[in-house]
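Re: the 103-residue chain
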Amino acid sequence: MGQGQDGVGPLMAAWCEGDAQAAAELYRLVAPRVYEQLLRDLGDPALAARLVEATFVRIARTRGAYVRGADPVPWIMAAAAAAVRRVRREQRGPWLLRWWRRR
C-alpha cells in the first residue's frame, strides 16, 4: 500500500495516534488539493473553503476508520466528494418536495 507522494501516510498514522502537530502538517499538505477539487466541483470559493474545513472535521471524527499504511489522500478526497454531494442535495431540497413540484 502506498504512502502518498508527499509522505502523508505517516502523518495520518501519527494523527490517528493523537499527534496534533501531524494533523496540522497533514492539513497544510492536503488542504490545498482538497480546496482545488472542491472549487472545480462547486465554482464557489467561499463554499469550497467552508467545505475544506468540514471535510477535515469529518476526517477528524472518523480517523479511527483509517487503514494504517494506506495512502490517506484518496480517503480524504472521497470525504470531500461526499461533502459536495451533501451540498448539492441540500441545494435541491427535500426529495418529496421535488416530487410534488413535478406533478
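DSSP finds five helices and no strands in the chain.
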